[in-house]
Records
---
Amino acid sequence: MAAAIQAIKRKRPREDDRIVEELPLPKKKRKLAEEDACQNRHEATEKKPRLSTEAFGEDCEISYDQLHEFLQYATLGRGQNAAKPRWCRIHHQRRLSGLVVVVLHELSQLHFYRFYTQFKHLRKTFRHRFSLPPLSGFTEARWGAGVKENPPLSREELKKDPVIQKYGEERRGLSGYILTPEEMRRYNYPLEGSSDCSHFVSICHNVPPSNDSPLFGLDCEMCITDKGSELTRISVVDASGQCVMDELVKPSSPIRNYLTRYSGITEKLLRSVKTRLADVQARLKSLLPPDAVLVGHSLNFDLRALEMIHPNVIDTSLLFTRKGGKRFRLKFLAEAVLRKEIQCTDQEGHEPTEDATCALQLAQFFMSQGPKKVAELNLEARWLEQNQAGGSKKPTLSKLKNGIPKQARTPVQRLLDALPSLSQKRLLLGGQSDTSPDSNQHKQILQQALEEIPGSSLSVVQVPSDPRHLNPHLAGHLRAKLRTKLEDMLTVYAGPFRKGLCLKALRRTFENYGHIRSISVVTETLKPHIRVQYEVLEAAELAIENLNGAEVAGSSIKVQRPITEMTLDWETLLRQLETDADNEGVIYVAGLEETHREADWREQLGFLKDLKATFRPRDPRSGRERNYCFLKFPTVGSASVALRTIRGQAARGGKLHSRGAVTPPHLHRWLYHENQNGGCPATPQLLCEAGRQPKEQLFALEQDLKGAMKGCDRWIRKLYRGLPNHMLCLVLLPGTDRASGSLPGFCLLAVKDNSNGPAPASH
């Protein structure tokens, strides 16, 4: 029995299908004007990849897991078990020509809004934007770009590698990796004519395998019975990674040890199972084609548990051969070769479907890359390094589903490193360094990107930042400047008023246009004035539009913003915010009554047509609804109609006031968090740091960074114009999360569509 347990311990995991990319049909040469018109009609009805999102208001913040899920689906599609994202829908994903991620190291949402006017191309082109939590090292954490590589083998070492000695350096066809009868005898595989296999079921069809024979991944779980090792579960996957068989099996003899730690099988799990070994044998025999090739890790144990004989086998424990007859574990090969985690610590026992898929993908990797590429991985050095690093953690029990252990969650894959095993090309360019990048470095990255991106399924282009701009003093300075600028834009001064003014009554008047954060009397003037600070920019603008020159509390007053360095360009900034893609089809409405149910205040807006979404902020402490909201309409035209309707009612004495939105949702959320902290920054260390460096140096650094942001915007514009049509492009500002302070990240999405703009520039 001890020997049987040891044999099962040596058993071990999984992956997905291949992508079939749709190539655009070549366009026929135009000859006549009628053909041009026909072509234009065809293009108008052509299914083009595009993005759409229902995110609005508080939903504009996503996690990095959601972003990773989105990029997995965009690159791999449904066929690779990639979950379809709900927060941003990709229409006609299969028509995407690829995905490019531009990482602007160390930049954040703060940089985007502090230098808002410099990012002309980003604002115009990338219409889908989301906030992200602070994170440092996004590329290393999510893409595997920071994985330490072992030193390359020399020519002499390569010749001595056991993989090269067994297979040579040239690639072979599938049949070249199938175990020979002599190898099967040596490694204790069940064979025809063997005395201990006389009762085994044979699935020999006398059809020799070819290089086109279908592959099937196989993995079994066993337990210990009075008879020895018997089958309790079988999983089979086809060449695309789809599970075609997954059955629990009840042994014929009394069970002495369920081996739950390795198999995940329990007494309760098998209690109601009726399937027997003979049922599985019959089904498997009918499932496999005559020339099928079985792939598994130490597959001899699986075939003996199945009591079946099959001549066409690829054993990955022998395929990735080692010196001295040793074998790599499947978990190690999955991580070292496929860059994926299997047999995770959140489950007890191995997931056979995962194991079968992983073994299949290892074989596919070996055949597609060839022995030389496998030898260059230097797996022996990685194995030694991993053993020196420490052991594994104890697993925990997984949940059950429909009587079968719940399929393990999709392994945490480093997407860039997983693509080669799926026969897809990936590209990783650039990176952060300790030296200041020059214009030539940026040009080289751009030129290489434009040359290599068209042939890659996924490209990650990392734009290095100048280390001087990573100064925490500068980050604190920028945050303080942005906050001061926003506070000045949120503030209005009104007056003059008569002496003895009633501040409470004035508050009610000014609050018709939005929530007031603070209101106070200005005592430095000859006649009383008041200072009103609103929560959102729209409220301040409405107060100026409606009350400037009006008679309030018996006085004709003037309402204006403070004139400071920060507000001198407000009119220009206002126009840019009003035409921002984030604010298209969105209007701001103030003067709502306080209600206890969402349906009640929605009823107040029932006269508006084509309303798509609403967002009504709440007080961060009490949870009470504010007296304003943002309304989203499907088109700019429907938003304009709603705006005219509300203004018409206001002219007739209605209580509602409205204007086009100027506060993007993610900027509103940033302000919301600032206000939630009582007006103090969420990371006060940054402001403290800002005061420890001379202002002249900080000002010079800010101006230098301003020019760098403008140059970065031009660089992205050139890259975007040179991308192939229908390429999904994501610009990532990952933010930072350090002891000196954290800054939220920001991502911008767009699908390249030449029909919506000029043709790509030539480079």
Note: The chain has a mean pLDDT of 81.
---
Amino acid sequence: MAEQPQQVSEQQVNELAQKVEEVILGEDGQPLSKKALKKREKELEKEKKKQERLAREAEERAAREAAEVDHGVDNYGRSAVNMSREKTETKWTALGELTAEMVGQLVHVQARVQGSRPVSGKMCFLVLREGVETAQAVLSVDADTVSKKMVKFATSIPNESIVSITAEVVKPDVPVESCTVGTVELRVRKVFVTSEVKVTLPFALEDAMHSEEACARDATLNRVGLDTRLNNRTMDLRTITNNAIFKIQAAVCQLFREYLTNEGATEIHTPKIISTASEGGSNVFKITYFKGAAYLAQSPQLYKQACIAADFGKVYEIAPVFRAEDSNTQRHLTEYVGLDLECSFREHYHEVMNMIGAMFVYIFKNLELRWARELEVVRRQYPSEPIKFDETPLRLEYKDAVALLRAHGEEMGDFDDMTTPQEKTLGRLVREKYGTDFYMLDKFPLAVRPFYTMPDPVDARYSNSYDFFLRGQEIMSGAQRVHDADMLKERIAAHEIPLESLEHYVRAFELGCPPHAGGGVGLERVVMFYLGINNIRQTSLFPRDPKRIDP
């Protein structure tokens, strides 16, 4: 009879499992020797004592701090949410107003903490930022105002939080080269957080302010990609460079208005929801309009001409323009800001073209004069030379530009439209030959212009149309418009556009309209090329392109 296997009790199984668990294996997977076990026990005991010592020291330190009188307790902290409960007579000073003449004065400032740097438990530095300006603030323990706890609090303020600070203006031992305000610094007396950052920042703001040259010199510098910046645009717009870029953008609009208002022009506001394509083309956004369809305006073209027919004389508009072009280049957007103008003239469309040239000269000169500080900030991150231009802008005819390009080896027909590379090449050739970055190109081939463009009276293959170029790229397109109703109908038919779709437009000219000319300027392009920036998305506040409609 076969021998029955011995039964193992549950208790025996548990005892065996416990013994296996107690076996400590070495790196080779084998049980440790007695000598190795003793060594390990000593190390564990040593670590245990270390942790007990650290815990004891922490308790003692906490006890000392609790017992220590905080003489700065009323000078720092987190303010309650500002609900406009009270008004005070506090005089606030902007960082950009700080000067060496203010040394010794007590000032009140509100700014963001761009960064903090503790030197010891008794001293720390803060970098404050407001608009395009940065300044250094210092907290140092003293007997009356600043305590160690106050210094500790200041170093714990999250970057990008907003603080209100009371400080004495002092002269630093050496100029603060890392800040835009370098001749003085702030010796902090009070610091209160008024708006605290409570999330992890998407990137360090300093990393978004490195120039290409700095990154090339120092490979350890972090770079922030354009997509990351645009995905977190609110944060990105806080850089002093971006702040300056959009102050300059606003300045271009301001100067555009100034000049044209002084010329007697009227600012108008035209519809952006229209029943037909502005330019008679297909690059339009079609939208649902109640039970029908409508389009987003490609330009205010038809309406600004209607205002000329209504005897406004000279008109301009600053408004959004929509182009449904599936283009992902560095200089195209699907929505941009158009600076449009239209003016009647007495004898020749050059009256308007030359006025536009003078307008640009006015804008360029005043930017350098009145926004020099902002230009300096931008050029620190995006180095570029100021543009070269003449008081009377250079005028070239299209055929002369074609001749220049052919002499340089470019192959193109007399009536071919220029490619972007050819435009850039022409800009370089013009700068070399005429010493200017800004010029007017006149008499474009009629075939490459819209239906409402007036043909050249001498050679109908050309037209009374022009483009303006800056640093070799187009910033404005314009022309004399067809103002005769019969001629306009002929031009519409030649472009195979249904006449009924432009019925209201043509009607304005049947009522009689003076000769006129005008053009449209792309605001973002002007700023981009003027500043020498490589991507138009950087000069658009919240850019829209075929792949981006957020944020």
Note: The first helix runs from residue 10 to 22.
---
Amino acid sequence: MSAASHVATESQKRARAFAHLDEAKLGWFHLRAVVVSGVGFFADAYDIFVIGQALPMLYQVYYGPQYITGSYPANIPGFNNSSPIPKTPQNTKLDFNNLYPNGANVDAWLKASTNWGNFVGQLLFGVLGDKLGRKKMYGVELIIMIVCTLCSALTGQMINGIPILYTLSIWRFFLGIGIGGDYPMSAVITSEFANVRYRGMMLAAVFAMQGIGIMVGGIVFVATLAEMQGRIQADYTCLDTVWRVALGVGILPAVGAVYFRMTIPETPRFTVDVIGDTQKADSDVEKVLAMNSVSNVSSNWQGDDIATAKVAVKTNNLAEFRAYFGQWRNMKTLIGTAYAWCALDIAWYGLSLNQSQVLNLINFNGPTKVTVSVFNATSNTTTTSKITPPVDIWNLFYQIAVGNIIIAFAGTVPGYWVCVALIEKLGRKPIQYVGFGVITICLAILAAMWNTLSAQSTPFLVIFTIAQFFFQFGPNTTTFVVPGEVFPTRFRSTGHGISAACGKIGAILGVQAVGPIFSTNAQLVLAIFAAIMFTGILATVLIPETKGKTLEELSNEDDVIIA
């Protein structure tokens, strides 16, 4: 057989094997892939966003005694106090950002430390997923997450050494590496096993577990606070247990998914296009199809042979990467996926990890200020001022937790699942266009009418909820889905990792650069976010519509087998 005939024969084998995957009916193996990947994303989102509620409790316990001083004036309306009330951590929420040295930036770093780890993990696992294989790397990221989540929950400070803020941020950084690794791994494995008809829906369903993770984080805080109400009302330091329990619960879904991730098979596409073993890929496809009809999501295959090169294929080294992405038709796709994700995350993380301002406006972040009269004996004058009255510290944190659940239920979770239902009907690009467009309009309205809307909780909440809905039924989902589809197998994990890492650059900017000024100039922040969302519309022009197309059609690369 001539070399040309050999290449043609092996290419036909490859096309036939992939066609079986592309045309397979939606079945149990597909469900298993979605569940195993989705449980990891549940843990990812839980671990990332739970810190927003945990930090104020940590600040209250560890820094409240040092920075809460002074007293409330006498005769506060509704308190019947004839003499001043001393301020204590039991009746006053610590204003960490204003009282702790450089507090706003320290708070921003603690929230963004996981995103810095995400950035490293997405690039690292993205490259390793293409070099070593999906199977070898899948599960490693969960083990990192389990160890670092446990260490985060148990972290403490040295009496004469490193403060707890530093030790927590270190563990959160390494936790972020594990979470970051989950993005390219879960997306690529789900995409490469999926059929064409439901590939977008499967990827969106994996990502939709992020919404469930965010919602469950709020529920865990509510449940833990409810159970410990009496103890916290007697001693505020019991809040130390609450935030540690909330962080620690993130271990449970990760532990449950480790075994299934470690035993998931290598994808046939990687076996052919990177290793060069068409024979094993063909037999693996048959096993996938057989398992697809077995009503058991926990089944694994037996006797998994090691793939060996039978044909020569294009390599995935740096020179080949440059050659492929040196072509404008390929580079513009990477620019589009990377920038759209970056733009999205600037606003998404900037708002999600700084929700205290939103909770203030819907009256879920402490009591409203009251007017008091204060007599100045020196000048023999009485002045009036607005102050925040003493609080039940348990009730304050309970209301914050409830407020977070309301926001999750109102727009966040529904948006994810509406996207799952409609992504194959509408396509990826239309959803991304509409999402960026509606978010731009909502944030522009909030910025332009801030002075009016900030005093009207209901209209504000309606507009904010619409924006939250279209974050999820829009670019927050599609920026995850599209990079898992548009790159060739040998660079698919790397391309997704680069796109996701650019997203985390956006998240870092949203939390650390913009976040610290949110409480002092929300109007400016919202205007900045609106402008950035508009640029996401422009970036969407660069990406192809992937609905109804095979991964090989989208990759712009058919001649993978070269000898």
Note: Strands lie at 71-72, 85-86, 370-376, 381-387.
